[in-house]
Design brief:
The chain is mainly alpha-helical. The protein contains 16 helices and no strands.
């Protein structure tokens, strides 16, 4: 049992891989682009802010669009547009042009996670959602693994423009597979009754046996629930940490250890290989607790506390790196793995607490909050701090402060989420 739902999970995994591959390319081309366009840390931070701001604004409405169009057409439209945006980077000839290209990429890539979480809610019973989320979310790590292994090689062989074109074109391959294989369970011609019944086996999931026809829920109503704010604050505090790894890890390895070009490929790949393990492991931990009789929400929150504790050792990354660079890579990799394990669970809390017709909208609200958190971290901390310490030749102090922020963010997020949603309470929006 499970042939089709895991096929769907594989498709979402592929889309998430392409999504993160496309957004990671620029961090690996930074050394080439710095020379060609004469960027400093401030210029790069501004381009990063353009992406995050557009991503946040995209999240403002993308969940509603996906809820309205449905997962099939909503996911396809988002992927088509972000693939065009990724390829468009190759034709940019100025720093301003890169900001515009990144903004277009950000607003279109915003559709991935609301569509992915909604797809998971449609195709998996509650007890399997964290594992399914962990599997598809590991695509973000695979994308980040493929990027350092391919992008510098492409750039050095045939030019940085082709790195954007080749990676961006993968989205069109996914679109072919998506239209060929995807349909919602209620309309899937080859889905067996046994698997259909298993997908809808949750006691409180009886409404999912048909395509939902209830009116969509307004943002204003969703924002009246403490559960929405628990998710929003959790994303606001922790999403920026992952974006820091994604956009600044190659720069850290370059500035701290002198790694350039293809030399950065292996350590970056190792970090994201560990992240993939963390993503799937993060889905397995609560599933194992549930199989041992724990309530789903208790299993989820206990897992998230353990995961938050696993991030904290990153504060020692530079000290360990003084002994051996690979110790720093290892501890950063463990923290990145813990983030992905955290993501597998925090995303699943939405489908735990909200009806399926609101899942994409709540995910969009949280995604917007994560983007705004990323903007705040970049503008208020990274941009000012990194430029200042770089100007006085003490960039290592900027990274030291950032690693402390990374170590504390998840514990703070867990405390706030526990305060806002101490117990599992399924939202009855129509009550």
């Amino acid at each position: 049992m499970g042939r089709y739902r895991w096929t769907i999970c594989s498709l979402v995994f592929f889309a998430t891989t392409v999504n993160y591959l496309d957004r990671a390319v620029i961090s690996l081309l930074k050394p080439y682009l710095e020379v060609e366009f004469k960027w400093n840390s401030g210029d790069y931070a501004n381009i990063e802010i353009a992406f995050k701001l557009a991503y946040s604004l995209g999240m403002l409405g993308v969940g509603r669009v996906i809820d309205k169009l449905g997962t099939k057409m909503g996911y396809a439209l988002s992927t088509f547009l972000w693939s065009l945006a990724a390829i468009g980077h190759a034709f940019v000839s100025s720093t301003l042009g890169f900001s515009v290209a990144r903004a277009f990429l950000g607003v279109t890539e915003a559709g991935n996670f609301p569509a992915a979480i909604k797809t998971t809610a449609e195709w998996f019973p509650q007890k399997e959602r964290a594992l399914a989320t962990g599997i598809f979310n590991s695509g973000s790590n695979v994308g980040a693994i493929i990027a350092p292994l391919s992008v510098p090689l492409i750039a050095e062989s045939i030019g940085w423009q082709w790195a954007f074109i080749i990676t961006g074109a993968l989205g069109f391959v996914w679109l072919i597979l998506w239209f060929w294989l995807y349909e919602v369970p209620a309309r899937h011609a080859k889905l067996t009754k046994a698997e259909f019944d298993y997908i809808h086996s949750d006691v409180d999931d009886l409404a999912a046996v048909a395509v939902e026809t209830q009116p969509k829920v307004s943002w204003f109503k969703l924002l009246t629930y403490r559960q929405t704010w628990a998710f929003v604050l959790g994303k606001f505090l922790t999403d920026p940490i992952w974006w820091f790894y994604l956009f600044w890890l190659p720069d850290f390895l370059n500035k701290q250890y002198g790694l350039k070009g293809t030399a950065v490929s292996l350590p970056v790949a190792v970090v994201y290989i560990l992240s993939s393990i963390g993503s799937i492991g993060g889905g397995w931990i609560p599933m194992n607790f549930i199989k041992n009789g724990w309530p789903a929400f208790k299993a989820r929150k206990t897992s998230m506390l353990l995961i938050a504790l696993c991030v904290f050792p990153i504060v020692f990354a530079q000290k360990l790196g003084q002994v051996d660079m690979w110790l720093a890579v290892l501890v950063i990799g463990i923290a990145a793995a813990a983030h992905q394990a955290w993501s597998a669970n925090i995303f699943t809390t939405v489908s735990d607490m909200f009806p399926k017709r609101a899942v994409a909208s709540v995910t969009g609200i949280g995604g917007m909050a994560g983007g705004l958190g990323g903007i705040a971290l970049t503008a208020l901390v990274q941009k000012r701090m990194f430029v200042h310490y770089e100007s006085i030749g003490q960039l290592d102090k900027a990274y030291f402060i950032m690693f402390w922020i990374c170590g504390a963010a998840y514990l703070l997020a867990w405390v706030l989420m526990h305060f806002l949603a101490p117990r599992m309470k399924k939202i009855d929006i129509d009550a």
